[in-house]
Specification:
Helices cover 41% and strands 16% of the residues. The chain is α/β, with parallel strands linked by helices. The strands form three sheets. It has a five-stranded parallel sheet with strand order 5-4-6-7-10. Helix 7 links the parallel strand 4 and strand 5. The protein is globular.
Length: 277
Amino acid sequence: MLFDGKEVRDNLLKELSKKYKKIKCGLTVIQVGDDFASNKYINQKRKLAEELGVNFELIKLEKTTTNKLCKLIDELNNKEECNGIILQLPIPKELDYEVIRNRIDPKKDIDGVNDQNIIKLIHGDNTALVPCTALGIMKILDYYKIPLEGMDVTIIGRSIHIGKALYSLLLNRNCTVTICHSKTKDLKKHTLNSDVVITSVGKADFITPDMVNKDVILIDVGFNFKDGHICGDVSSEVKDYKYLTPVPGGVGQMTVYSIYENLLNAERHQNVKKTKK
């Protein structure tokens, strides 16, 4: 069976739209450079913002320095009309991503990459803003009522946005979680014995039929091009599985949705703090 990301998104969006009718919200996206894929993702974010009635602002910089970008973020941190800030990736290598991501106010960190949000996530604090792809994956699993407790999960990839975030989310849901990466010995041993395999490697045909069992739930976060077509990490030769998120039409549908769920939560927490003052 295929997990239909669009179906999940469309159904959850109905409830989210009702909530947005009651508030005013602003989202600012900062882009450095003119990456083709980034432009596409930004347009998706803008489109959904318009649909929800969110004030969407794009600040596009041809080039900048780490210091200048931090000063811009400081201004947005102090701007009351801005409830959320996203630094669109990728950014030029000369910019210090570690410094920049931690400059974003944790309360406005819609991508959930500030260390304060990561620490909250590890501790199971429900005020944490969760990286959007990881949150989207959890939404898909919950929508299809997957009984996660006690499951063995293998995550391939250890990025902050996906691997490490999912590790905490799934561990907090009482899964037994293994993170694999480029230095892992005998990857197949881990994947074959897993109830759930989540792959975010970025290599077409990375997951082959001999690596998974017929009852596995495959979450494919890969985004690759093969023979002129978009595909994930899971080979088209993999036919035996319990569930699979297709590419396209799977996790990607939920990533953009999750931005606006995070933005809504961010606005709520910001307003709570204002009320207490």
